[in-house]
Amino acid sequence: MDTWLIVVIVIAVLVVLALIALAVAKRGQAGKQRKAEQAREHLQEAQLRGARAEKEQALAEEQVARPDVSARRSKSGPRRPSVRPRSAPGTRSRSTPQRRS
Known about the structure:
Layout: H1 3-65, H2 69-75
């Protein structure tokens, strides 16, 4: 085999190896970029969940701090109607002043 042919084959192998190394490096960079993008998305989601959780916690604390109106009603017994019941027809209420004619 001629020497120049061996040199050409060695150069071709080196070029192929360089191209393979370049492709692997680009793939690694693309993978890193993809992972970085995923990490940013996960961070944003975590921040949103954290903000939502803080808001819900503040709401819960506010509800605990505020006196519960329905709890006070149940402690004092059944709620009384605000309007007096009507008296039976033909009878007069005691609280209504009677007119004398």
